[in-house]
Give the backbone structure.
Amino acid sequence: MDIQHLVDRLEDLIDEGRHLFGTKYTMLDEERALEIIDQMRISIPDEIERAARTIQQRDRVLAEANEEAARIVQQARQHSEDLIDEQEMVKQAKVRAEFVIEQANLEADKITQEADHYVLAQLSQLEQQFAHTLDEVRNGIHLMQHQEPDQVEPALEPQAAQAPQHSVRQQPINFDRPAQATAASSV
């Protein structure tokens, strides 16, 4: 039985009792009062037990809430640490990427310079070969122009058998000058 109900019944019993005139005393039905008190004694442990269970449940809920709050705080800390670590890794990756790009640019510049030097050397060598070939052609034209017509046929055959012994000209080719002037200046 509910303790509150028993208290209400005890209060009703007191109200029903007879008041002694001129005193603050009231006469009660002893048997009914003792019965209510016995029921209260029986109900009080139940009420205390329910109160204890309620307190335990409250404590358990508070403990779970505190654990959940601690877990959430720990997750928030871990998340913020992860973000900080991630930002640090991003910064390091950017620095590393900038270094790699700079090294790649330096290497590309070096390769470009080496390629330019190689091409220049090959073009210079080709220019010398063309100059040598052009000198031979001009010398042949000059020789053909200064020989008599009946001497041309026999002169070509021995010359074809032997390699020409001309000196290699080391000057760059100037395609603007006429061929006769060059041939005349080389003789």
Q: What stands out?
A: The two ends are 143 Å apart (CA to CA). The longest helix spans residues 30-146. Confidence is low (pLDDT under 50) at residues 158-164, 177-187. The chain has one domain: 3-186.
